[in-house]
Amino acid sequence: MSLFDDIRITFISTFIEDDRWKYLADGLSVTMQVTFFAVLLGIVLGFIVAIIRSTNQKTGKLKILNLICRIYITVIRGTPVAIQLLIIYFVVFASYNISKVFVAIIAFGFNSGAYVAEIVRGGIMSVDSGQMEAGRSLGFNYIQTMRHIIMPQAFKNVLPALGNEFIVLLKETSISSMIALQDLTRGGDIIRGLTFQAFMPLIAVALIYLLIVMILSYFVDRLERRLRNSDH
Amino acid sequence: MTTDTLIKVDGLKKHFGELKALDGVSIDIKKGDVAVVIGPSGSGKSTFLRCLNLLEIPTEGSIFFEGTDITDPKTNINLHRQKMGMVFQQFNLFPHMTVLQNMTLAPIKLLKLSKEETEIRAMELLKRVGLADRAGAYPSQLSGGQKQRIAIVRSLCMNPDVMLFDEPTSALDPEMVGEVLDVMKSLARDGMTMVVVTHEMGFAKEVGTRVIFMDGGTIIEENTPNELFSNPKSERLKSFLKKIL
Q: I need a labelling partner for B197 at 20 to 30 A (CA). Which of A118, B44, B110, B170 fits?
């Protein structure tokens, strides 16, 4: 049998037979769902934490909230995301019959929030202090100044960094298979178990991740270039 | 307090740790005054100005603005700041907004004026400072002198009762100083109450109604520009004037 025939037969057993490609398609859809909603949760959490932290840094207020935020960031960044996922599934939600997709969104969202918070806090602190003074001198209170003047600038500064954070998050969701969530990685692994062929399904999974990451990177790059060109 | 007193400062002190930036300043600013504050660097003149709208919180003393003690923690300082325009050395325009948006943001959000009404007024002010054609530009596309003129009219859009200037020409290239001073002069002629911290002695002489000389965190001498510059009484003012004139 020629090499070509060999590849053809493996290809058919990996993707075509019993519609096995559907494991990858369904898995991809789960991966995208988890990533998308985890990103949303991460942004909301991250921005809240960043605003609390930078307010504390600038004014010395919100001491207790800041302490809670610091503990959150330290714990999340100091432990592996795999352990966080397992704890949330087997400990926090142990007695609930809850969708694994939901658990993964919570775990990765909370994880991402800590990283987003530090990115956004850096963005807020990088806005010149004269901007806050100008806003306050016009009569805006602290919250209004943050909302209309500081945050739009901070957000623009950190957009590229946020984009990269979400690319990392997309890849991290591959450990969802640890709670037997049928994501893209798990889909490839199931095919491997069915066909006893490791090469083709795993390479296919890798290529799909790579493709999505390349597409996302392209948009982050373009965004970065556009922000650099127009300095306003 | 007489009725035409706009700002009354009483025993104002501001300490940064050991440093006594302000060490007991008392003064009345009346309606229509153009009070020019001069003095060597580190004399506390900028700190004094920044205390007037509480960008710096005084350590001691009180500041009455239109009869209200704004140093009282119960006072809502945000309402009073709407009536006190401030112009900074570094302009502090909002870089993510156009000139027109810079000017209309506060009146629309704080005074709840309509967008149309505010934009008409902003365009009038822009015309007055010769920058009507720059309404759609972003701050990064403007020269320093243009930025500072925009910063001035941004404050004017709020219809303030007093304008505070914190070294408005110090960050400018020399050839741009004139255009900013011209705007300030015309403002003074229109009767705007102004407190100006500056190194521009020409401006002080020409439009100042009173000149205040500060050193070491206190007011050393205060007089009309003519008297103060031609007839300095204290040794410190004499040596200061000798150095700069």
A: B110
Q: Which stretches within B44-86 are classed as H helix?
A: 45-52, 77-81
Distance CA A221, CA A227 (A): 10
**B53 neighbourhood in chain A, CB within 8 Å:** 137
Predicted interface score ipTM higher than 0.90:
yes
CB contacts of B81 in chain A (<8 Å) are 136-139
Show pLDDT as tens, one digit a residue, over chain A (232 residues): 688 888 888 888 888 888 889 999 999 999 999 999 999 999 999 999 999 999 999 888 899 999 999 999 999 999 999 999 999 999 999 888 889 999 999 999 999 999 999 999 999 999 999 999 999 999 999 999 999 999 999 988 898 899 999 999 999 999 998 999 999 999 999 999 999 988 899 999 999 999 999 999 999 888 888 877 655 5
pLDDT band of B1, cuts 50, 70, 90: very low
- Cβ atoms of A187 and A14 closer than 8 Å: no
Which of residues 3 through 62 in chain A touch B, CB cutoff 8 A? none
Residue B21, classed as helix, strand or coil, is: strand
Beta-carbon separation of A232 and B84 below 8 A: no
CA closest to B97 among chain A residues: A232
Q: Could you say which of B88, B109, B155 has the minimum Cβ distance to residue A133?
A: B88
Distance from CA of B234 to the nearest CA of A (A): 35
The answer to whether B139 touches B96, Cβ cutoff 8 Å, is no
In 3D space, the residue among A215, A210, A224, A100 whose CA is nearest the CA of residue A162 turns out to be A224
Give the β-pairing of B5-16 and B19-30. Answer: antiparallel
Structural element, H or E, at residue B232: none
Q: Is the pLDDT confidence value at B159 over 70?
A: yes
d(CA B124, CA B104): 12
Tokens of A29: 């859809």
Nearest CA in chain B to A151: B96
A138 vs B96, B139, B158: nearest CB: B158
> Mind listing the domains of chain A with CATH numbers?
28-174 (1.10.3720.10)
